[in-house]
Amino acid sequence: MKLTHTLLLFGILLSYTAFGQTHNAYYQTLVNQVSADQLESKLTSFANFGEKQLGSPEASNAFNWLVDLYESWGYTSIEQHEVNAWGESGYNLIVTKTGTVYPDTYIIIDGHYDTINGPGANDNGSGTAIILEMARILKDIPTEYSIKFIHFTAEEWGLIGSYQYVEDIVLPQNLDIRLVFNIDQVGGIAGDINDTITCEQDEEFPSSNNSQSSLFTNQLMTCVELYSDLETNLGEAYGSDYVPFQEEGFVVTGLYEYNESPYPHTSEDTLENVDFGFILQVAKATMGAICHFAVVQEDMSVNDANFDQVQIFPNPVDDELIVQSNSAKISKIHLTDLTGKILWSSSKVESEMKINTSHLPNGVYLLNLMKGKLSSSKKIIVQHK
Ligand SMILES: [Zn+2]
After folding, report:
1. Centroid of ligand 1 to alpha carbon of 373 (angstroms)
2. How remote is the CA of residue 2 from the centroid of ligand 1, in Å?
3. What do you get for the CA distance between the two ends of the chain, in Å?
4. Ligand 1 centroid vs 47 CA: distance in angstroms?
5. Average pLDDT of the chain to the nearest whole number
6. Which of 46, 52, 126, 359 has CB 3.0 to 4.6 Å from 59, enough for a Cys bridge?
7. pLDDT above 90: residue 85
8. 253 alpha carbon to ligand 1 midpoint, in Å?
9. Which of 56-60, 157-161, 329-333 shows the lowest mean pLDDT across its residues?
């Protein structure tokens, strides 16, 4: 019975999706690092540059400030992409963090930094401050997928910066993009109750990418619920920098405020008129989502206090895994495959051990550490060069 089989398979897929995405304690430690002070200071600097239209000194100042921040955090892949329109020019900023397992596949998190008719505290200082906070926290956190943090210009003139980026770079370089995650106008309204965020899915032509967008947007909604205090609303992706990507068949999702502010594109789009508490919650939700989309790799030294002296590296590993236990007094170590079959074991644990992984097929393994009655396991990825 073909119909029955189809329904059964659909049911299995649905439950896998629902149960596959659970609260992750390590992601939560990163969400907890999202700082209200950092967000407020970035947003304040952003607003104080004034109106940042393409070609203006204010836009140039804001661009240089963004570059300086990324450099101060130690990012090295910082590119400027020239944008030209109506006799004016400026730059998109693209900062790349390389993934450990899929270095050539990108999660793009983007938002525009140009503003029109005002300082743009909400539109889009809010998204800009959140992207910066993600980049600050994730600098030294390994992710399986590469991340591109992109600050577009000339969005307010008709998505010109993102259209030119897709045309000049994405298509000629045939970039492998897993997801474009756009953040635009998530500042809320000061004095209002801002307790809901709209998660945006692609409902436009072409339709080939719509179901994937729906899947990622559902995951985004789950992340909002898991890692912030906000409620979710499902909306349609339109009128922002994901559009040039979605038109070329890429998978997009986005965040936009549900309680829509009347101030954007006016001189009233100021720090006084946004809700900093709401921006903090959107930033927490975004951090949970980026951990999920880029697949942050857990660091056992952070998530398990009993084994906090143990360093395990590199991960992913090619032919030799190093375990440094220092003062942790590990009594036994073994490496298993995902079925639990022991592939390597040692009960004579020295302060530094080297485990030969050269013969293991590429894949996921578990390193189990025991200390008296305590045990902990860490996911190890074998990836031969
Ligand atoms: Zn905007």
Report:
1. 55
2. 47
3. 46
4. 14
5. 91
6. 52
7. yes
8. 15
9. 329-333
Beta bridge partners of 100: none
pLDDT of residue 100: 87
357 alpha carbon to ligand 1 midpoint, in Å?
49
pLDDT of residue 327: 60
pLDDT tens, residue by residue, 23-57:
888 899 899 999 999 999 999 999 999 999 999 99
Helix or strand or coil: residue 334?
strand
With a pLDDT cut of 70, the percent of the chain lying above it is: 91
User: What's the CA-to-centroid distance between 188 and ligand 1, angstroms?
Assistant: 13
Domain 300-382: which CATH number of 2.40.50.630, 3.30.300.30, 2.60.40.3080, 1.10.10.60: 2.60.40.3080
For ligand 1, the distance from its centroid to the CA atom of residue 124, given in whole angstroms, is 5
Output the CA 229–ligand 1 centroid distance in Å: 24
| CA distance linking residue 239 with residue 325, whole number of Å | 53
Q: Look at residue 263 and give its three-state secondary structure.
A: coil
Kindly give the distance from the C-alpha atom of residue 70 to the centroid of ligand 1, in angstroms, as a whole number: 22
Domains in the chain: boundaries: 22-294, 300-382
Containing 253, the helix (H) or strand (E) segment is strand 252-257
184 CA distance to ligand 1 centroid (A)?
Answer: 5
pLDDT (average), residues 136-143: 94
* 89 vs 337: which has the higher pLDDT: 89
Phi then psi for residue 48, to 5 deg, are -70, -15
| Cα 277 to middle of ligand 1, angstroms | 20
φ/ψ region of 97 (left if φ > 0, alpha if ψ in -120 to 50, else beta) reads beta
Distance (Å) from CA 240 to ligand 1 centroid: 7
CA 185 to ligand 1 center in whole angstroms: 5
22-294 to CATH, choices 3.40.630.10, 3.30.930.10, 3.20.20.70, 2.60.120.260: 3.40.630.10
Query: Do 22-294 and 300-382 agree at the fold level?
Result: no
Rg, Å, the chain Cα set: 23
Instruction: Count Cβ neighbours within 10 Å for each residue of 265-284 and write b for 16 or more, e otherwise.
Output: eeebbbbebbbbebbbbbbb
